[in-house]
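Course assignment 3, question 2. Fill in each field.
Student: A.L.
Task: Predict the tertiary structure for the chain below.
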Amino acid sequence: MHDVRTVRAPSMPRLAAASLAGTAIEFYDFFVYGTAAALILGPLFFPTFSALAGTLAAFGTFGVGFVARPLGSVLFGHIGDRRGRRPVLVGSLLLTGAATVAVGCVPTYDTIGVAAPVLLLVLRFLQGLGLGGEWGGAVLLTAEHAPAERRGLWTSFPQVGPALGFLLANGVVLALSATLSGAQFAAWGWRVPFWAAGVLAATGLWLRSSLPESPGFLDIDDHARVPLAEVARDHWRLVLLTAGALAVGYAIFYAVTTWSLAYGTERLGVSRTVMLTCIMAAVLVKGSLTPVAALLGDRYGRRPLCLAGCTAAALWMFPMVALLATGEPLLMFLGFLGAMIAFITMFAVIAAYLPELYEPRVRCTGAAVGYNLGGVIGGALTPVVATALVEHGGRVPWGVGAYLTGIALLSLGCFALLPETRPVPVAVVAAEPAMD
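Answer field:
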């Protein structure tokens, strides 16, 4: 057994800050593409399509990133289970950052023809590949250092990262939209947020360069030779349940942050600035409430909060689309806010819940694959399906409400089948079944 006492443990605030910064940067990379897909990529890279088809095609390339994420979780999960959590943090950040900068350099269709959307597709795939490894590495490094009674709280900080990344990505786009003309934004302004990813990635690498390896990894006697094979053989049911359970969170988040942005600007005629402001305000509240919900998870358990969040989501999707369809900023914000509160009630505790469900030797692969498969089910198709449903509906997109409610009910059923995990050390939770 490795002697974990030879490894100086970092302070939890420092570790949480480094994990939060990394996830914020990587999700900035991922979200800035989603915002660009909703606002500008269709006419620039698919100009021969109609406006609707161009938006669908742009969202299609957006979805490729989600398909790549489970593959990234397999690749980086293997590294995390075999070589340690720390190398995952560095490798995933490098890959995602480089791919994002490259997106900002791709010539448009008018310059290089069909090669433009092909390059966009490849780079989006690489973005997803890197992000697929990020969550598992950042969350596990934090979870395996955290004291058992406050694991939910400390692992909630990487979960704040997506909100910060979203706010940063959309804040940059909002600033550019407010200061540039439409022609300037289409010509070069949309590229600036992608180029900024290079500076952010360098900052993230600096923050993570001195982090020690997780004691949870160092204390494993016998590392899995092929982690994915063990997960597929021994934990396939758990992977499917966690993927189905998490699908609703992805569906809600991308319905609000990506699909509604395109719907509001294209169908309702609401300005980009108003839509981005409403969405960003709701995401800001969501990020602020994350540690609060996580503390409730430490006190009352992970599963009760997940069930409550799913139930709230199922009840709120129809009111949300009705409020969105008004085009009134305050009402749209209230619709988005209710959805984000339901979302974070679940996702604030997921970073503690998933590591506690998987045994240490395959934890990086199992937790990351389950998490990212949920993204494929709930996130990859939601903007495309919602856009198509709107085309065949009236002013109020009831079909989108029904679709999101259906996913919420699916996730509710999956959470109901998952066990509760007690706030005891991660290794003990994983070992208990074998000790019966």
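Instructor remarks: The first helix runs from residue 12 to 39. The radius of gyration is 21 Å.
Grade: pending
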